[in-house]
Amino acid sequence: MEKVLEVKDLHVSFDTYGGVVKAVRGVNFDLKKGETLAIVGESGSGKSVTSKALMRLIPNPPGRIAKGEILFDGRDLAKLSEKEMQKIRGKDIAMIFQDPMTSLNPTMKIGSQIMEGLIKHQNLSKSTAKERALELLRLVGIPQPEVRINQYPHQFSGGMRQRVVVAVALSCNPKVLIADEPTTALDVTIQAQILELMKDLQNKIDTSIIFITHDLGVVANVADRVAVMYGGQIVEMGTVDEIFYDPRHPYTWGLLASMPSLDTSVQTELAAIPGTPPDLMNPPKGDAFAPRSSYALEIDFEHEPPMFQISDTHFAKTWLLHENAPAVEPPKAVVEKRRTMPSNFAKPRLAEEVVL
Amino acid sequence: MLRYTLQRIVYMLITMFIIATLTFFLMKLLPGSPLKSQDKLTPEQITIINEKYGLNDPLPVQYVHYLGNLAKGDLGSSFQYDNRPVTELIGNRIGASAQLGFQALILGSIVGLILGIIAAIRHNTIFDYGATVLAVLGISIPSFVFAGFMQYILGVKLQLLPVALWEGFSYTIMPTIALSGFVIANISRFMRTELLEVMGSDYIMLAKAKGMSGTGIIIKHALRNALIPVITIIGPLAVNIMTGSLVIEQIFAIPGLGEQFVKSISMNDYTVIMGTTIFYSALFIFIIFVVDILYGVIDPRIRVAGGKK
Question: ipTM of the predicted structure?
Answer without folding.
Answer: 0.82
